[in-house]
Amino acid sequence: MIVFFMLVLMAVLALLAVYLVRRPNIWDSVLAANVATNLVSIIIVLYSIYTDSAMYMDVTIIFALMGFIGSLFTMRYIYRKGDLR
């Protein structure tokens, strides 16, 4: 069951990659990148549960935190410089 959810999330991640390529503006691109980092974090957590290994949880926390900080600074930069297209 966990493998099924991992595959579904990977399919959603592939659809999100298509959306990133065909993005309407930069704000949607930043939002899609943030959602992608969250999906990858969830996939890593599910893999950690599947393998009964807790060592991936540290990686997941750091990865999610870095994704949030990256999105925050990117949005702040775009907001100050204007809407970059």
From TrEMBL:
<protein>
    <recommendedName>
        <fullName>Na(+)/H(+) antiporter subunit F</fullName>
    </recommendedName>
</protein>
<feature type="transmembrane region" description="Helical">
    <location>
        <begin position="6"/>
        <end position="22"/>
    </location>
</feature>
<dbReference type="GO" id="GO:0005886">
    <property type="term" value="C:plasma membrane"/>
</dbReference>
<keyword id="KW-0812">Transmembrane</keyword>
<keyword id="KW-1133">Transmembrane helix</keyword>
<dbReference type="Pfam" id="PF04066">
    <property type="entry name" value="MrpF_PhaF"/>
</dbReference>
<feature type="transmembrane region" description="Helical">
    <location>
        <begin position="29"/>
        <end position="50"/>
    </location>
</feature>
<keyword id="KW-1003">Cell membrane</keyword>
<dbReference type="GO" id="GO:0015075">
    <property type="term" value="F:monoatomic ion transmembrane transporter activity"/>
</dbReference>
<dbReference type="InterPro" id="IPR007208">
    <property type="entry name" value="MrpF/PhaF-like"/>
</dbReference>
<keyword id="KW-0472">Membrane</keyword>
<feature type="transmembrane region" description="Helical">
    <location>
        <begin position="56"/>
        <end position="79"/>
    </location>
</feature>
